[in-house]
């Protein structure tokens, strides 16, 4: 082999070695943050955008995401140290605090600001009105969960007593509600996306109303952490919140198709066009929070809804369980 060929090979090998070492160093520099989401949902689009578009990496964070089914299990994982940050409904922080937790849970960045469910009717209804639910069989969500509380709040808002004016079914597991309706149970059902849109496509049901539009703004899904974690590592919380804000901007500024393509790795079995339809529906009713700040009016609305449903253990002061310090810094 000629001398110049050997030299070239040595240069190439040396260059590749440097690149590999640099890549390893970059990987080592990223701080791993364990995040537990209460479910996998297009409703949480900004979170997935922040991961796939590299917004967390830009802040030096490596997100280790896991799905922990159920609010109670998600909070158990957070309290036990199994995860650093939880993405779950704010009502769970109220439940935990009411039990006298030694290490308070703080809500620090809001992801969604409305209920994410839709009212689906078995038959297509051109001129829907809520009083059509009187005397019907309604498949609601799990008792004590935010979807069910928001659902009951909306029904009462329209003069319907969930316990007296219709047959309310709420003893079916979350994962089986859609199957029960598809099998013939109920006249109306309260569903999350993309199931509601899939049912429309398949002719199983028809979306007739939005619980999110009807129930108003509230801290529906929020990132929260233990107070001790936030005090010990405030920089991580700030970096996390900054990455989230970048993703929130992306979700509203990019096209629905671009958002759908960005999050499809988390929904491989769902068609991009369907994901885009769902994203657009949630954007139109502003379900995705436009910034991470959870304001006091939203917090009070949440507690009013919980109180109306008979699920509020006691009213919690906004300043005790909400910390907007990091969100405010990000917006400066």
Automatic annotation (TrEMBL):
Signal peptide residues on this chain, from the entry's feature table: 1-22
TM region positions: none
Record-linked PROSITE patterns: PROKAR_LIPOPROTEIN
Keyword Signal: yes
Alphabetized UniProt keyword annotations: Signal
A Pfam entry, by short name: NMT1_2
Origin: domain of life: Bacteria
Localization annotation: Periplasm
Family: Belongs to the bacterial solute-binding protein SsuA/TauA family.
Record protein name field: ABC transporter substrate-binding protein
Organism: Ureibacillus aquaedulcis
